[in-house]
Design goal:
- The structure is a homodimer of 112-residue chains.
- By secondary structure, chain A is α+β, with helices and mostly antiparallel strands.
- Chain A has one domain: Arc Repressor Mutant, subunit A (Orthogonal Bundle), CATH 1.10.10.10.
- The first copy, chain A, is 61% helix and 15% strand.
- Chain A contains four helices and four strands, in the order ββαααββα.
- The longest helix of chain A has 33 residues.
- Strand 1 of chain A pairs antiparallel with strand 1 of chain B, so a sheet runs across the interface.
């Protein structure tokens, strides 16, 4: 089956693509920016910069970050971060379905 | 308003993105591969290679090509080429609508 890669370019010049979405999802599953970065083979600095970029582009925090404590700081998705993932995955799924149907049409065209 | 860029990666390794679709559309409007290439600032060789790539990926000609004659050869879309453009633009439009709605939701989230 086909795979899709979608990049969204926003008015202000901000961009949203598979990398940032994967990072948000990794923070959700791993519970911190550093663990998310490790999972994706990304430096903490790089992960932090991407999150700051998202915060700036969307004018609100995409994560809720807890600082310090015995376990070190953790992070979880803020509502805007959760909404971003949902939005992106919805666009991707719908585009995928359309694409799969369209490719089936093309195969039928070839079979005639 | 946001812009979207969608790349489709097919099973066989073939790829379909904005460049190839723009080329097909330019052949449709300009009437030949060479004129389409000129319009897009692309060499004839490059344009020809992209078209051959599409033919191979989809297992059928995306263009109907007329060879020679007084005016030189011309080209027009074959059914598969037309279908590819329609498919891609449909995916793009649907993704765009979803994205615009989603971004509006995010703005509302920020305004709260």
């Amino acid at each position: 089956m086909p795979r899709l890669s979608i990049k969204i370019s926003l008015d202000g010049g901000g961009k949203l693509g598979p990398g940032k979405i994967a990072l948000l999802e990794a923070v959700d599953s791993e519970g911190s920016i550093s663990a998310a970065g490790r999972k994706l083979g990304m430096s903490y600095r790089r992960a932090w910069d991407l999150i700051q970029d998202l915060n700036t582009v969307f004018g609100q925090p995409v994560l809720e970050v807890a600082i310090g404590g015995k376990q070190g700081g953790g992070a979880m998705l803020a509502p805007a971060g959760r909404r971003l993932i949902d939005l992106y995955r919805q666009i991707e799924t719908t585009a995928y379905d359309l694409c799969a149907d369209g490719l089936k049409d093309l195969e039928n065209l070839a079979a005639r």
